[in-house]
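Need tokens for this chain, all 332 residues.
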Amino acid sequence: MNFEWFRDLGHLARTGNFSEAAGLSNLSQPAFSRRIQGLETWVGVPLVDRSRQPVRLTRAGSQMLEVGQQAVDLVETERGQIREAQALPDKYTVTFGTQHSIGWRFFPTWLQEFEENFGPIMSRLRADDLPNCLNDLHHGQVDFVIAYHSQGSDGASEDVLRHFPARRRLRSQVIGQDALVPVSKPRLDGTPIFDLESQASDVPFLKFTDKAPIGLHMKPMLAATNLPERLQPVYENAMAGALRIRAREGLGVAWLPESLIAPDLESKNLVVAGNETLRVPLEIRIHSVSENTNHLTRSIWAFLGENSAHRAQARAKQFGLSPGSDETTHRT
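Here are the structure tokens for all 332 residues:
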């Protein structure tokens, strides 16, 4: 398997023509076709519908293109960071671990804003399942973990914390806000195909697997409504990106992070399928272990704490409340 194949598939998706896509890849058409066939052989299913002109990607092709391009971007970013670290061995590379859905869209924007205020740092990202991220934090393989937290779901929070395998101080600060939003593919008139306001039963449900930490944040909302009786699970996945693909194909309704699907909502590829009471507010928190720190990571933590305190004071002043701290400390 060659990462260049994903670039070729992207060229084909954009042009719909093998000859034009081959030109973009600086290949002859026969060589380009062999590379696409090689990718299809590696995946094991057809990725291109050749029965029509212009050609189009199959459902599997669209899924592999999205995931493959993300993988290529991550590998190239990691390569660049490794080269920079080798060129500047005296500089420490700060490693962040995030849940996948946070790593795709929220993290790059947050990191850019952070560096504009704190100053540039060398950093790398590990996007993984939350238990793996916390395990890496425990073993000192990442400096910080960024994850979702919901104020109304103590059960979800405790489930997250139980994955932290040592009785140590796990510190947390709030660095952003998000929400799980019910969405559906729209009809031609812009209304959702699956409308939680009007559809009384058998609503196709694209759900997170029971073991996915992000799905646990939905439990209090579901328990407070009659939705479990109306939702009919048709697909399960631990990855928000996989549910997003199915939702855009019109296969059901899914609760997805608003930061992840913002482009889909703007382009009307997805529309909100329920009222405000069905939104699940989320905090985005950064976690660290005080024992696994150095001068740079301690400076970052202190800087984030100062910004958090300023935000809390601003909110308190706005609403006439006593200022409080956004930092919490847990012992597991």
